[in-house]
Amino acid sequence: MKLLLVEDEVSLSRAITTILQKNGYTVEAVYNGRDALEYMEAEEYDGVILDLMLPETDGITVLQTVRKKGNKTPILILTAKAEVDDKVLGLDSGANDYLTKPFAIQELMARIRAMTRNPWTQTDTRLRFGNLTLDCATFELSSPSGSFRLANKEFQMMELFLRNPRKLISTNRFIERIWGYDSDVEASVVWVYISYLRKKLASLESNVQIKAARNAGYSLEECP
Ligand code: CA
Predict the structure, then answer these.
(1) Residue 12: which of 45, 43, 48, 51 has the closest Cα?
(2) Are the CB atoms for 2 and 25 separated by under 8 Å?
(3) Domains in the chain, ordered, with CATH?
(4) pLDDT beneath 70, residues of the chain
(5) How far is the CA of 52 from the centre of ligand 1 (A)?
(6) What's the gap in Å between 30 CA and the centre of ligand 1?
(7) Please, which residues have CB less than 5 A from ligand 1, an ion?
(8) What confidence score (pLDDT) does residue 4 get?
(9) Taking the CB of residue 14, how many other CB atoms lie within 10 A of it?
(10) Among residues 123, 125, 173, 194, which is most buried (max CB within 10 A)?
């Protein structure tokens, strides 16, 4: 999953980014409201963490602007503003959730999971396809034959596959979703990760395979 973090305190931004990455998210960080608007316009995120007191354009204006444009990306406000009026304004302006600083990291993680949860997965953190299960809380990929705890990039790749079973996912889409929009990662890197996942699927004796479509991308298929 890819998140945008809008936070002007550089040290806090770095700390949150590190924790999110350890928890399997791709994070892009911006430090003012103007960049937040630009990034949200240019890219698709699974969720946004938005500070309110920001240089250039404040958080409430960012929120109102993107909602007015019809952007439905889940947005969590993370702010030192703890007054009831601020929370009401934030939520009424289109935020999905509101968390005040100082905050407990576990609570931030739980709120991000809740905010980005697909309606069809409900409270279940597991994605399933064929005889394969991926637990998005523990990064564990399992089959009746065993399990692996996936590292960050492998986990994100598998998650993207399992949220889009049987659909062709292009190499560029993997790069954009996992390495980020302005990364200079080559297609061969995606291939390397695909090969890691294929090895794991084989050793799990899974009936699920990653099929390659020449020059187009990859899809997750269930074998009869
Ligand atoms: Ca701030």
Answers:
(1) 51
(2) yes
(3) 2-115 (3.40.50.2300), 126-222 (1.10.10.10)
(4) 118-124
(5) 6
(6) 12
(7) 8, 51, 53
(8) 97
(9) 13
(10) 194
pTM for the model stands at 0.67
**Residue 134, pLDDT score:** 96
Place of tokens 């009026």: 85
- CA of 98 from ligand 1 middle (Å) equals 15
Amino acid 118: pLDDT: 61
Which two tokens mark 149? 């705890």
Sheet with strand 47-50: strands edge to edge: 26-30, 2-6, 47-50, 75-79, 97-100
Q: Dihedral (C-alpha) 160, 161, 167, 172: value to the nearest 10 degrees?
A: 60
Cα distance between residue 112 and residue 98, in whole Å: 11
The total of other beta-carbon atoms located within 10 Å of residue 144's CB is: 11
Ligand 1 centroid to 3 CA: how many Å?
A: 18
What's the CA-to-centroid distance between 109 and ligand 1, angstroms? Answer: 20
Checking phi first, is residue 202 left (phi over 0); if not, alpha (psi -120 to 50) or beta? alpha
Q: What are phi and psi of 90, to 5 degrees?
A: -60, -50
